[in-house]
Amino acid sequence: MTPYAPPPGLHVPAAPPSWWQRRVVAPIVAQLRQGITPRQVALALALGGVLGIFPILGATTALCAVTGVWLRLNQPLIQLMNFLVYPLQLLLLIPFYRAGERLFGAEPVPIVNVPELVARFGEAPWQFILDYGKVGLYGIAVWALVAPALAALTYLGLRPALTALAPRAAR
Question: What is the 3-state secondary structure (H, E, C) of 4-53?
Fold first, then answer.
């Protein structure tokens, strides 16, 4: 029995590219085609990923932009990675905060109990700001401890793959 083949002369359209292909792979390939080295692409993606999990919501876009300008990295790529790791940032917020409280020996404050948050704010707004400001700083401290190793591992993991992709992207 032979596998099915379309009749001669019948054009079978290719499947449309996936979201991942269009939104992630294509921009990376486009940057490689424009002459950006695989090392620069790997650095932009690694730093975008690490900065993208910074434990303060709303700060990552500015962090990536400033870092990209400072290090002359590709802004679309660093922001692309920042966007892609956003779900990971949300998942890591509480672990960063709790690890920071443990690291500094601080008493855990309620984070996910909204009625308790509202009550604490209503009772003492300035104390609320101080308590949760400290929690944010604790989270930043833990992030600062893991970020260099995570950035290095991501960079070292991406660089060989991008170096292998570069010749194919040039075609």
Answer: CCCCCCCCCCCCCCCHHHHHHHHHHHHHHHCCCCHHHHHHHHHHHHHHHC
CA distances (Å), origin 90, targets 53, 64, 87, 98, 131: 8, 17, 5, 14, 20
Q: What is the dihedral of CA 132, 135, 141, 142, to 10 degrees?
A: -140
pTM recorded for the entire structure = 0.84
| CB neighbour list of residue 106: distance below 8 Å, 6 or more residues apart | 100, 134, 135, 138
| Six token digits for residue 34 | 């424009």
Taking the C-alpha atoms of residue 38 and residue 163, their distance in angstroms, rounded to an integer, is 5
Going from the C-alpha of 126 to that of each of 34, 93, 122, 140, the distances in angstroms are 52, 22, 10, 21
What residue ranges do the domains of the chain occupy?
22-170
For residues 75-94, b (16+ Cβ closer than 10 Å) or e, as one string? Answer: eebbbbbbebbeeebeebbe
pLDDT along the chain (171 residues), means of 10: 68 77 84 90 97 97 97 94 97 98 95 91 94 97 98 97 84 70
